[in-house]
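Quick one, tokens below. Sequence please?
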């Protein structure tokens, strides 16, 4: 299952955050606020010393190879300190705040990539800032609260409420999850590398297929026709046989070019949509496949292409590895998401790291805000669920769909090819 990061929550106060008005009576909430204010000094002192030590050590050691790793490790520790402060605020101040998204270290390229990702972690740096500015505030709140316990006892609930209101604001402002834009920028920076790598791999595959397949056949065809031309007058029968052989080579080369073009973007998908395209893929699967597509309109062309190739690779895996006797593909829409579910009754045991291309599919979907979930216990069955953003067609995409009149809707197929597909 690919990792999925929780959405960053808004800094707006939830209804449960609303506090009852402060009163002269010392309620349980008031005692919690007093405890929080008294704990501010030791926590602020520890945080300040930690931040200064990490920054000083990291800065001094930057001239050596261990400076940046020390700073990265310090930022990771700051994340833990921020988690503790959020827990303290939830327990004593009633602040309802989510945890920030974890760093997507699985997407980083090697050790240096993970190091750079930790060094630019906005959550860690904002925790550094929080701990750095808290020392004078911690001293102030501790002194005021301790003095009020003996001098201003009757109005202490109001003092505690005012001071902890500032604490709540600081926690929400500096320790809350990153803004949605900040989180998306970090994800897109990581996803860009995945997309570039995938595109480069596809180009290499196309080049290899052209070089080893159609190009080699066309070279042989040219040589065969050259020899046939030389023998045309002196040995017509041999020349005719060579021309016949060349004709067969032409057919094979055309078929390989069609297969290659289908691998880039099949014409049936462009012309007729997912229903016909997936039915065509199912017809080539070694296992009987039932296809059900229920879409009133077509999604964006890019999303449609990703959905097609995702199902294609999953069906290839079923043919090669599952030992299944039956499979099914279900495609539908929920709100603004395209949902795909591929099921088979095979032996199970499929994993993202199992070497069957699952990790590549997960990364490809993750790059467009998709979800990829694999449920495959040993002994089966296997269910793979994929979810993609819908992203409605615009401009020429919509016009093409309207002209063709071929939006997919509710056709079931059991291993039968799409009619009308070019041979």
């Amino acid at each position: 299952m690919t990792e999925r990061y929780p959405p960053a929550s808004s800094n707006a106060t939830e209804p449960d955050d609303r506090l009852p008005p402060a009163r002269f009576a010392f309620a349980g909430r008031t005692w919690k606020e007093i405890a929080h204010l008294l704990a501010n000094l030791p926590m602020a002192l520890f945080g300040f010393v930690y931040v200064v030590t990490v920054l000083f050590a990291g800065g001094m050691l930057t001239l050596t190879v261990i400076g940046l790793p020390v700073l990265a490790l310090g930022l990771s520790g700051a994340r833990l300190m921020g988690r503790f402060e959020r827990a303290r605020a939830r327990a004593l101040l009633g602040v309802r705040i989510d945890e920030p998204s974890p760093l997507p270290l699985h997407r980083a390229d090697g050790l240096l990539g993970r190091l750079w990702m930790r060094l630019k972690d906005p959550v860690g740096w904002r925790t550094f800032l929080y701990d750095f500015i808290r020392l004078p505030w911690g001293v102030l709140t501790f002194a005021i609260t301790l003095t009020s316990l003996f001098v201003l006892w009757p109005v202490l609930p109001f003092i505690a409420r005012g001071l902890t209101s500032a604490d709540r604001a600081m926690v929400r402002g500096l320790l809350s999850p990153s803004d949605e834009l900040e989180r998306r920028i970090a994800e897109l920076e990581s996803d860009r590398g995945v997309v570039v790598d995938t595109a480069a791999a596809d180009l290499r595959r196309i080049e290899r297929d052209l070089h080893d397949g159609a190009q080699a056949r066309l070279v042989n065809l040219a040589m065969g026709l050259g020899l046939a031309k030389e023998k045309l007058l002196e040995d017509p029968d041999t020349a005719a046989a060579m021309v016949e052989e060349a004709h067969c080579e032409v057919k094979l080369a055309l078929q390989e070019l069609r297969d290659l073009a289908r691998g880039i973007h099949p014409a049936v998908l462009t012309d007729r949509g997912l229903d016909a395209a997936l039915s065509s893929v199912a017809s080539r699967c070694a296992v009987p496949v039932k296809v059900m597509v229920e879409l009133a309109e077509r999604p964006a062309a890019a999303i449609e292409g990703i959905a097609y190739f995702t199902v294609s690779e999953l069906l290839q895996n079923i043919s090669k590895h599952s030992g299944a006797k039956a499979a099914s593909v279900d495609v539908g829409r929920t709100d603004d998401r395209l949902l795909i579910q591929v099921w088979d009754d095979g032996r199970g045991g499929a994993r993202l790291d199992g070497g069957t291309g699952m990790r590549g599919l997960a990364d490809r979907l993750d790059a467009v805000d998709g979800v990829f979930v694999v449920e495959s216990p040993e002994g089966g069955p296997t269910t793979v669920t994929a979810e993609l953003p819908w992203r409605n067609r615009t401009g020429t995409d919509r016009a093409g769909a309207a002209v063709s009149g071929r939006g997919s809707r509710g056709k079931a197929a059991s291993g039968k090819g799409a009619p009308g597909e070019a041979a």
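The chain has twelve helices and six strands. Residues 47 and 131 are 5 Å apart (CA to CA).
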